[in-house]
Amino acid sequence: MADKATIVLFSHVSNTRSITGAEKLLLFFSRELSPYFNCILVAPQEGKLTRLARSYGLHVRLMPIPLVYGVYTPYAGLPADIRKLQEGREYHELCAWLAEVCPSFVITSTCVHALPPLAAKSLGIPVIWKISETITDNEFTPISVELIQSNSDEILAISQTAAACFPEDIREGKVAQLPPSWDDAEMMFGAWSKLRGERRSELKIAPGEPLIGYVSSFINKEKGLEHFVKMAVLVHQQHPAARYLVVGTPGDKSYYERCVRKVKLEGLTSRFRFVGYEECLPAAYCAMDLLVVPSLIREGFGMTALEGYAFSKPVVAYDSGGLREILDAAGCGDLLVPAGDIGALAERVNALLADQALAAGIGSQARERIEAVYGPAAYRARLQGLAERWHLRFCLNPPQIIGGPGGPPAAPAGGGPPAAEQPRERPGRRAARLRAAKLRRGRLRRAASRARAGARTGRKKRAAGSARRRASGGGKKRRAGQAAGRRSKRRRKAG
C-alpha cells in the first residue's frame, strides 16, 4: 500500500475537557489504520480528541453535524425526521465537502451518527458503519436496522452483543467484528509500582486499606454510581477498612450530587474519594485493588472492564450486554451478577476482600487471558485483515461521484428500494461543474452583500429625512405655516 488511499472517519462527539470511551476507541482505531490509509478525522468541534489526533499526526476537520439519537432509540417518525435533517444546511455542506474530497470510503462511529453515511451513499462513496452500542429493542428497531444496512457496505460491530440486532443473513454477509484493545505505550508498565504508591499517597490511602474503584467517563444514572454507593454501605459492614474511589465527570449533576449526599448520610464520607476527571488513568487503576462496573444499560462492550483487566485488576460487574463477553473471556464469569442486584454485587466484593492474595491472582490470570483475546497483537492481526480487504474492495477502483448535495440518498432513510443511480460524470466535467457552482455561490454572496449595503444606505437616507422633518417641526406644521403665510399675503393685497 505504497500510495495510500484517503479515507474519512467521523466522530459523533469531541468533548472539551475529557474524553469518552467511544472517542478513545475511534482515536486508537484511526491511529492503527494510518499505516494503511491517509486518515482524515472529522469531529463536531475542537476538543481533547482533536488535540490528541493532531499530536499523533492525523488530519483533522471540524464540522458540526446533527446527530440522530432516534437510531439508538427507534420510533415511528424516525424516517421523516431524518428527511428533514437532509434538507438542512449542515447536510448539504457535508455532501459538498465529501464530493470535493472524494475519499475511497468513509467510516462513521456509533449508530447515532447517521448523516455521514447517508451523504456518502448519495454520492456513491462506500460506507463502513461502526456500531459500538446496543440499539434499543422495541417495535421500531427494524427501522434502525434497515437504515444502517441499506446505507452501508460493511457493518463493523464492537461485539456480538452490538451485532445481535441485525438479522442472521445480514450478520453473515455484511457484519464484521473488531473488539477494542489498548495501546501498550500508554500503559506505563515499568512505572506501575511507583504510580500505585504515589496515587495512594495523594488519596491518603494507607497500605493496609483495600481500594475499590468505579470509573466512568461521564457519570449518569445508567452507569450505576448510586448502586456502587449502596454496595459500599453493605461492604462496609464486613470490611470497614475498605476505601472507595470514584473517577469520572458528572454527566447528570443532580444525580451525582444525590450520590454524594447518600455517602454523607451513611457516614462514609471519610471512606470515599470523588476525584472527577482523571488525567492519568494508569495511576488511578494502579492505585485500586479491584474494580466494580455496575452498569445498568446493555453495554455494547464495556471498555472500563477491559481497562481494569489490562491493569491486572479483578473486576466485578453487572451482567449487562457486552460485559459478559469480556468477563467470560477473562475466565471470571462467576464475578458477574444480575443487573440491579446490589446484594449480589456486595457479596462478590466481600469474597475478594476476604482473600486479597487470591483476588490479586485472579487479576493477573485474567490479564493473561484478556491479552490473548483482546490485546494489541490480536487487535492488529484482525485490523490488518480488514484493512487489506477494504483496500482491495474500495481503493483499487476509486468511487465516481454520482450525485451532489441536492441529490437523493442511495437508500431512503428508514428503508425502501434504493434510489435510481444517477449517470456518472467524467472527472473533467465534474471539475468544471464544481468550479461553476463555486462561481455561482460567489456571485450570489456578492449580490447579497450589495443588496444588504443598498438596504443600509436606504435606511440611512430615510432616517436622515425623518430627522430633518423632526427638526423643522414636522411636515404638517410646515405646510400649515406656509398656508397661513399665503392668507396673510392675500389680506395685505386686499387692504
From TrEMBL:
Keyword hit for Glycosyltransferase: yes
Ranges annotated as spanning the membrane: none
Compositional bias (Basic residues): 429-449, 457-495
Pfam families: Glyco_trans_1_4
Region of interest called Disordered, as start-end residue ranges on this chain: 403-495
UniProt entry keywords in alphabetical sequence: Glycosyltransferase, Transferase
Highest taxon of source: Bacteria
PANTHER family in the record: D-INOSITOL 3-PHOSPHATE GLYCOSYLTRANSFERASE, GLYCOSYLTRANSFERASE
Identification of the protein by name: Glycosyltransferase family 4 protein
Organism: Paenibacillus tritici
